[in-house]
Design a protein that fits this description.
This protein is an alpha/beta fold. Helices cover 42% and strands 20% of the residues. It contains 8 helices and 11 strands.
Length: 231
């Protein structure tokens, strides 16, 4: 029985089968959805190590699916899109995706990204074993074992990468971190991606729990730092 499950949601059957065949060759158990509604139903009934969503799907598009998934779980999500505009990439990251790849794409690159995200997810969860289970930051409580953040009694929905960035800030409180350092720590130097992703994720973090920039400060020309009481 496979341990790692991947969900692929795309209305293009040829692309779904191509990705599925390639991931199965790598030892993944693959589930296929051909529209957004099917994808959401799968997530409600299965646990996945990673989810691949096409943006352009009938009924419920990939962005809406991503939003709904993020209301429930922090599983890494890769968005696929025939659109290559920078705006579409930013929107995808803002709704909670961890990565974005434009069509047409190299199947080898996609598989590499899948493996890289899962590898990093395992490392981060392993590292969290030795951390205190709940960290307090002002009126926030950060649960390192289940990737959950609460402001008072209200749960704040963060993507996997957003949570990991927040944790990295906490581990380096009052230290100025450059975008390059954050990218290296969260995405890894050998992985595919764009350093501008860091800016998008930090913007999302601020919108979700720090709209007044009380905790995450921009140090112009240098990077960012976290301030405030951590216990």
């Amino acid at each position: 029985m496979y341990q790692l499950k991947v969900l692929i949601a795309d209305d293009d059957l040829e692309i779904v089968n191509l990705i599925a065949d390639s991931l199965e060759d790598e030892g993944f158990e693959v589930y296929k959805a051909h529209n957004g509604v099917e994808a959401v139903e799968y997530v409600e009934n299965q646990e996945f190590s990673l989810i691949i969503l096409d943006i352009m799907m009938p009924g419920m598009d990939g962005l809406e699916v991503c939003r709904k998934i993020r209301e429930k779980i922090a599983t890494p999500i890769i968005l696929l899109s025939a659109k290559s505009r920078e705006l579409d990439k930013i929107i995808g990251l803002e709704v909670g995706a961890d990565d974005y790849i434009a069509k047409p794409f190299s199947i080898h690159e996609l598989v590499a990204r899948v493996k890289a995200h899962i590898r990093r997810e395992k490392r981060n969860k392993s590292n969290n074993v030795n951390q205190q289970p709940v960290i307090a930051l002002g009126d926030l409580s950060i649960h390192t074992d289940c990737y959950e953040v609460y402001k008072g009694s209200k749960k704040i929905e963060l993507s996997t990468k957003e949570f990991q960035i927040l944790l990295y800030f906490i581990q380096n409180k009052n230290i100025v971190l450059s975008r390059e350092q954050i990218y290296q720590a969260i995405w890894g130097g050998n992985e595919f991606g764009d350093i501008s992703t860091v800016t998008v994720h930090i913007t999302n973090l601020r919108k979700k729990f720090d709209p007044e920039n009380k905790y995450i400060k921009t140090v112009w020309g240098a990077g960012y730092k976290l301030i405030g009481g951590v216990s």
